[in-house]
Amino acid sequence: MSRTVPPGRFIAVVGPSGAGKDSVMEAYCAAHPDVVRARRVITRSAEAVGEEADGVSPAEFDALAADGGFVLHWQAHGLSYGIPASIDAALAEGRDVMANLSRSVLPLLQDQFARSAIVLITAPAEVLAMRLAARGRETPEEQARRLKRAQFQLAEGLDPIVIQNEGTLAEAVAGIEAALQPERA
């Protein structure tokens, strides 16, 4: 069931590990200060290497979920992830919100958000492998599992904006801008 219809748009960003989602999102939001980048809540310690996120214990995460603290939440890679309900304020102000999601929750977008867009950021397998190794967050075995999952299909009926992030960061951001611009009005 759709929640209250906010005038802002929820921009869901998905893609394989190593595609550069966080870097592209950061650059896009820097170029568009009116766009809010949702800070995920993750059952990973706040000190862990990786994206800027709010780390919580599994018990804290479960309590937040039970109290309606998330607009979306899911599990992946042995962790729990959530998008805080606090983004509703930005959407109600008419601001777009951009969030890094799992493809498993994409079918819920149309039910949860009156206005949404999906951006699929990807890159060739060799680029993904190089980036995963460089970030040093996973073991070689975990990197291999993530690379194996890189070639995935989205649920039927979804029409993502596809960005091949194998060039410069500016090129990836320009691709998103061009694709989202017609809908910015």
UniProtKB/TrEMBL annotation:
Keywords: ATP-binding, Kinase, Nucleotide-binding, Transferase. Transmembrane segments: none annotated. The keyword Cell division does not apply. ATP binds at residues 15-22. Its EC number is 2.7.4.23. GO terms for molecular function: ATP binding; ribose 1,5-bisphosphate phosphokinase activity. Residues 8-181 form the Guanylate kinase-like domain. It catalyses: alpha-D-ribose 1,5-bisphosphate + ATP = 5-phospho-alpha-D-ribose 1-diphosphate + ADP. GO terms for biological process: 5-phosphoribose 1-diphosphate biosynthetic process; organic phosphonate metabolic process. InterPro entries: GK/Ca_channel_bsu, Guanylate_kin-like_dom, P-loop_NTPase, PhnN. Pathway: Metabolic intermediate biosynthesis; 5-phospho-alpha-D-ribose 1-diphosphate biosynthesis; 5-phospho-alpha-D-ribose 1-diphosphate from D-ribose 5-phosphate (route II): step 3/3. GO terms for cellular component: cytosol. Catalyzes the phosphorylation of ribose 1,5-bisphosphate to 5-phospho-D-ribosyl alpha-1-diphosphate (PRPP). PANTHER family: GUANYLATE KINASE-RELATED, RIBOSE 1,5-BISPHOSPHATE PHOSPHOKINASE PHNN. Belongs to the ribose 1,5-bisphosphokinase family. This is Ribose 1,5-bisphosphate phosphokinase PhnN. It comes from Thalassovita autumnalis. The lineage of its organism: Bacteria, Pseudomonadati, Pseudomonadota, Alphaproteobacteria, Rhodobacterales.
